[in-house]
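Comment on this:
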Amino acid sequence: MHVQNGANVPRLSQRRVTETYCLAGSALWLLRSLQTAFTCRILAEFFLFFFVLGPLQSETMAYGGRWCRCGLSLSLILSILGLGHSVELAFTAEPSDEVAVPGQPVTLLCSADGVQPITITWRKNGAPLWNEASVFPLPNGSLYIPFFQVNKEDGSSDQGDYDCVAQNRFGTVVSRKARVQAAAISDFHIFPRDATLEEGGVARFQCQIHGLPEPDIVWERSGEIIDTENPRYTLLPTGVLQITALQAEDAGTFRCVASNAAGVKYSPEAVLTVTGPHYTGYKDPMILVGPENLTKTVHQTAILECMATGNPRPIVSWSRLDGRPIGVEGIQVLGTGNLMISDLTVHHSGVYVCAANKPGTRVRRTAQGRLVVQAPAEFVQHPQSIARPVGTTAIFTCLAQGEPPPQITWLKNGQELKPRGHIKLKNNNSSLTISGISQEDEAIYQCIAQNSAGSRQASARLSVMWAEGLPGAPQDITATTVSSTSIQISWKEPLENTEEIIGYVVHIRKIEDPVQLEYQEAVSKDTFQQTVTDLEPSTGYVFYIKAYTSRGASKASASVVQSTLGEVPAVPSLYIKVLNSTAIQAAWEPSIKLGQNEGFKLYYRKVPLPHYTGPMLLPSNVTAYNICRLDPLVVYEVKLLAFNQHGDGNSTVRFVSLKEASARAGDEQRAKSSTTGIIIGIHIGVTCIIFCVLFLMFGYRGRLMKCKASQDQISAPQVAGGVNGRISHRSVQNGATLMDTGVLELKGKVSDLNEMEHLFPHTPRHRTEAIPSHSLDVTLVSAIIPDEISFAEEDPPGTQAINHPPSAKD
């Protein structure tokens, strides 16, 4: 129900109001995003604003609608002014390469969208086409050539590189270049040759011809076009005719016919003669023609030829050298082994291997060819339009990919942009940095990505924000050199809007430094000069001034360049080294602050004489000097200073006494000699100890070997002992032979009778009577011939005499 005169009325729900405004805002955003006419978008926005959102005004006021309506009003105003336009200026159509027929019309497309009015002009080979009678610009921006000519009366031609230029109040953009060429066809540079081949074999004819556009080639046999439905005939688009399993009916005359927009060409005829088979036995597989290296562009078609022969007929197969699968999509085999790849992509690039295999065996022959697929430049990241205040930094980024990798160049309002001053290009030109921007930097910047397969362009606008009522640029800036480290800067206040100035800022930078290394010094609003200190001597600097208010900075003043004064070099470091009793060496380290044409002055004198010897002028690259023929009994003073075009620097003084130095050198020599003697004595002692140890080791080993030989020789002969047949041995101790009824064992060995015979060949073998036992007091003489043995004075270690108890018989 309705209650009039101030009564409550039902309100729309907050949700409905919000949804309505969201839909309207989305519609406005969509309209700006669409590439439709600018006028149509403005009319649509007026409709949305007044007819859709107007009736909701009363409701939205209670739910923040005031802000929504204000925001939409601002959006509409910005759209009308062009500030909120999604694309300030951009091409919607660009010209492309054309092959024109002389005498026929040619149309090159070009159209742009953005803030009106937009003006489109054309250039040919970089020069504007103003009043060319043979070309006509169309209302939509395209260029129309009604009668294409290759050779005009004035010697010119309609052939060339064309581009269109679009311009509005925001700036200028340039389209990609389109090359216009005349259709043409040449004579055949490869044509078929006569051939005589065996029945059952293979034949191949080839034609090649140049033309624009690429000529179409067909084949004729005996004046009739060859039937492509015959499976034994394979016609490749490259101008090759293959015939397999030759028959007598294939004989005849062959020629190729090439045609394009420029005309028709006929090749010379070739005669094919087919003879009977002469040999029907086994033939190894052989590749007659293998694949060639090809360079193609994406979406084109590549044909890799492979023609093989043999008996039995070989099987042709294809593979990639890198082992990757060829795939099946877009792959087709023509004839008996030719590989055709349609709709090429960069992934098809690689080395392809054709193999002719003998059926049922591993016998094969191979040939290979490389396929390179190029891709035109494509943008990965477009540059984006930005707005920046005066004096700040703007960065545009443009990333593109392609095969081969594209080169990137930048245009500013249609003119090539070169790095200079505050404009820097980084990362292979993919990043454009503009530092300390001013009103002059406001423009449309284009990124051009180009490679051998094609080019692309994208644009973005830099808007320099400028608040109304800001002061003008400071006036009459001057710079005066005060010293080698300071310069005084003076200026006058701006000509307008000076009431709100709160201070000035002096911008300082070395001439050779990039803008990024600039630094500032702030001063009060009533100060119109500033002395900049802590500068480097003999160095040029760039200065400019800006006035600041609470709302922003003014434009920059004109720049002024001034250099500091030069200064004398700093004090060098000096070192003195005594070479001998009559010579010293002066060495020094130069200061890093030396100016141009610097050098050194070296003086020396006897103390306390007043006069110096010198100066000795030395160039800057000399850092040492020897002073000879000095008196060893006196003290010398050495003085060194550096000089340059501004004068002499302060000197460094050193004193040296050759007498003390000579005495100190003698002491050091004696100490060194003493130390050397000690070291030599230690070496000699160690050497003696080593020799003694070696002597003892090898001497003991010799005696050990000698003792072992002696003991082996003095082993007693075997003797029959008693009734039980035991053997008695003699034990040699202290030069005597002791009889024992047991068995004597030396080093765990027992010598038998044969060994005794070998050792004592002159001793006859006889049976020895049993010897009665005696007491240990009795000394018995050995039965062994003394001349046959030698005795050791002591037993070797580990040798033990084992005494057995006397036998019962004894």
